[in-house]
## 1
Amino acid sequence: MSTFKAVRIDKDDAGYRAALVDFNDADLMDGDVTVRVTHSTVNYKDGLAITGKSPVVRRFPMIPGVDFCGVVEASAHEGIAPGDKVILNGWGVGESHLGGFAQKARVRGDWLVPLPAGLEAAQAMAIGTAGYTAMLCLMALEKHGITPAMGPAIVTGAAGGVGSVAVTLLKQAGFHVIASTRRPEEADYLKGLGADEIVDTKEFEGAPRPLMKERWAAGIDTVGSLTLAHVLAATRYNGAIAACGLAQGMDLPTTVAPFILRAVALLGVESVQCSKAKRIEAWGRLARELDKDKLASMTTHVPFDSVMDVARDIVQGKIRGRVVVDMA
């Protein structure tokens, strides 16, 4: 098809706006692989891009969507052939390169990873950047030498996309999981994913003391700011926190006390520019290790024409778990 449906963001004298439009494949950006997109997903970053709440988009017009899964239509890239099923996460797609909220995409083959055995396309997008990031966090904790025997693990923003997968992965890895959320009504949902305890985020309001009672040995933080400062101050000796989000803010009002008095490690986890080898490792582990029933329980499926409504809801904290977009 020469035209296809896409969400397009424009910014001009008329303002910032997103709309579902007909897009011509002649206007796709350069790349050596063209993919028919079958599924995508809505991440917090996508919500920021569509609503304009944060300067995520760096060129206009832009098709948002940092994730997609689909079938290769044409390829000039060695090792990728028409008919291959592929996944894309990150690489500036949906920010500086036309992204996944379209029925067709043209990208560099180096950005793609094969859909691993054991995953359907819809399941891959139920995981998406959020679940893939959660696995990168678990891998970072493991590489640092953190084990369940050292103590519990906390997940902040636990009812969100990254948090939901993180709770499940940590539980499956053998940790006693503490889920932190500002939505106490999600307690049953989180316990169903594997949480052993629920902590109200209200506990993390106000400035933390430099050191607080030791409560956990590990953590996956999606929130940043004051919440991360509290989490660090309550981390056990030789513990580690993997930080991957900034939903509360980019600031970190803490002290050096957790790092120099308890040997706590803060592990930064970045998913956009991650190496292809690490991506393939993470996706392979997700295909093998993530409980598919729990994945289904945290996932909502929506049609393509509802993407913009979902984007607004996710920024307002109204979405729990993961959202799969059927691009048909």
## 2
Amino acid sequence: MQHFTELPPLSLYIHIPWCVKKCPYCDFNSHELKDSLPEQQYIEALLADLDQQLASVWGRRIQSIFIGGGTPSLFSPESMDRLLSGLRARLNFPATTEITLEANPGTVEQARFEEFNSIGINRISIGVQSFNNKHLKQLGRIHTAREAIKAIEIANKTGFNRINLDLMYGLPGQSVGEAMGDLQCALALNPNHISHYQLTIEPNTLFHHQPPLLPDDEQLADIEAACRELFATHDYLRYEISAFARAGHECQHNLNYWQFGDYLGIGAGAHGKITHGDQQNIQRSWMIKNPREYLAATNQTQRLSGNKQLSDKETVFEFLLNAFRLINGFETELFQLHCGLPISSVEKGLQLAEQKDLINWGLKEIQPTELGLQYLNDLTEIFLPEANE
């Protein structure tokens, strides 16, 4: 039975579901923009959504805010200002709180970025994916390599000192040299954070129905090894399986996810996870995905698509699914604090993982080995709820 002695850190995720064009690899809740953006109506719906969740987190401090999508930068600075003003009136977070906005290079304008920065957005995440026009076209991106470079230069020029670039590898027909070229171009632009992740084919995407020819496992291994070496020579620390940062610039919002912190989720399709100290349990919730239905809803019951209380086994699995992505693993004390369970509750699985050389199990911390990171699915499957019946 779960027993929480303190509540974990709390973040806020805001989902804005519209984009200019749906990419063939994307399985996020994003919808191509057919008409004008219902900005005012959606901001009002977001704040109404938040109002109806406030009781579950009353008095708790927000440690990070992430505005994702879709392409949130399609919204005007005026709309974002209304949103942030509404958040400040309802939530407890200092001016220094990390506030991230996702942006597509094809929608970046200098004046707009200057205004985003002036209203308090202090971190920009730019979805570059590649600096190769051939690969950008294959990925269905609306920007060119030159536009990607210009977007990053604008972000730097307009005062953002926290910039993330999303960069993919393992693209259709991509060679080791091409993957290295993408990374070299990204490093030359000097962002302080790069999310470097492999293209995977997800269900319910165009690529799933019309699969492109991707590099084989040997090519992928060569790409990964070469890129990690290049990151290291430029003083980027790999702190999560697909995240590299200069010292002090790790993404606080994502760290909260990976350390199994709590988060509110508002917006169409947004997910939330809240620990309830009074009830001694963890609740997950998720909003309806369709933006039109979300806007039409007048109360939380209509906006909510589902919710559930996590069992002990589900809690353990979700914690480890996230925490094993961290290169340095986690402290055993964190497991007890955020799961409300003793580390002995997963002793059998940890012993098996250690026997398979997938983890190093110390007195105070547990860390995935290089083999564990390479075979992360095998590691986490040991802790699946059905595997522990």
## 3
Amino acid sequence: MSTSLPEILESSELRLGAIRLSLPVVQAALSGYSDWSMRALAREMGAPYSIAEVAIDSFVANLRDRRRTRHHLLVQESDHPVGAQLTGSEPELFALAASRMVEAGFDVIDINFGCPAKRASGRCRGGYHLGQPATAIQILQVVRRTVPSQIPVTVKMRRGVDDSQQSRDQFFEIFEAAWQIGIAAVTVHGRTVEQKYAGPSRWSFLQEVRSAFPQAVILGSGDLFTAEDCVRMIRETGVNGVTAARGSIGNPWIFRQCAALLHGGALPEAPGVREQSEVINRHRELAAQVLPENQVLRQIRKFCLFYAAWHPQAELVRADFIAVQSWADWQQVLSRWYAEEQQGRYPANPGNLTSGCRDSCG
């Protein structure tokens, strides 16, 4: 299956229930990354919709209003539409956590049946549920029944626990049930749970799902490291949209790049060093608005290891960011490498940048 550019443009409005999104490329949930500051920056840079980092149902259900944890339920006026992603093991806790997320102001509840991290599957969460279709379907039913009808419920899945026929059958059993229950959209990652992030994502499986459920809203995931990857997945598989996950870390420009390509334009030039500096500083400002002071530097330094890839002296800049121990160190790196305007460069081998965040659930 290959979708032409005119067909993509004609159907570029992505819908999640009654929510209409102008770009079929959204900010995925990423454990440890897609906090409020990353999502807010992505929205400023063109993302039409973002999903908060995955939260455990019991954590949300028991979360108290404390400064150090308040940001987990933070929704501001400029965030809409925004989704909350939940993982867990008990249907009742899922429902309670979903209700709390709706009360906090989230517009969509996204259920995670895709995370391959041991801390998820080892505790009967995430991708584990793909091997337990009865429980998975019960969770979908309870959450859909619990949250208000105008709130879309979506689900993230991998193509199965493994490559056995049983796993394949269980995937389609859950997908069929989701469609019948009224799940607004399903994100499908082309790897198995056992595969984690090793080997290529099987995009051909997305074509199979698209053919089996031509009326369903399907988003694709897996090996989307550049804007070209995002557009190619839409064209080759026929999915309604894609979720920018690991490829969006330190790359909030990916949304405007996708918009340019989807509207028939050329890939924009890489952002210059001065623009990179402005975005890095903006990310810091946003993080400082919501995170405790002692967490801001650690979080921003983590992102700067990815931002550095856009610099013409990427390896040297990254090494300097790795050595940062204080705000004075961080400012020194900016002064040394970002003071003079230079043309940026697209990262070389962008897929390799995320080798340190294999359990990101993206």
